[in-house]
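tmp note - BAG family molecular chaperone regulator 2
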Amino acid sequence: MAQAKINAKANEGRFCRSSSMADRSSRLLESLDQLELRVEALREAATAVEQEKEILLEMIHSIQNSQDMRQISDGEREELNLTANRLMGRTLTVEVSVETIRNPQQQESLKLATRIIDEVVNKFLDDLGNAKSHLMSLYSACSSEVPHGPVDQKFQSIVIGCALEDQKKIKRRLETLLRNIENSDKAIKLLEHSKGAGSKTLQQNAESRFN
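out:
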């Protein structure tokens, strides 16, 4: 009878210790789950800051190269460029880096995708129109929407092999490049229009002098 009581107490002690360990493990796991949510929120916030930095730099660059900047006095242009350069310098002081964890296959896919985009960019000066069409096919390969034009199937398979975060960055880079080309096209058309209008005015003035 006494031995049975001793065994019962021993079992009770083991049960209490086991229960206590399980509770502690559960609390630790819950804490880690909460921390994981905060870590992901931190990465998302840092990524948002990275994107905002890219947007700001693009907007400043766009203003500096806008048609409006060409149509003001030299003194005003110089003053505005000084302000734009100051803003660009302050923007560049913000350093945010979100590292993407990649396996060897994802690393290789990223290198291939980057190389393809760089090759298209290097052809901008030689053939802007063809480069734009090529970029559109690359962008369509990254888009989940129904494409409005041809899709570069090879590039699409490469992008699919990239890490998800890299896929988003590749798409953002292509969007930025296409916007820059669009702005360049508009600037060229405005310049041609202003030249055409100027030539027409000169011709009219010349005709009026003879009439």
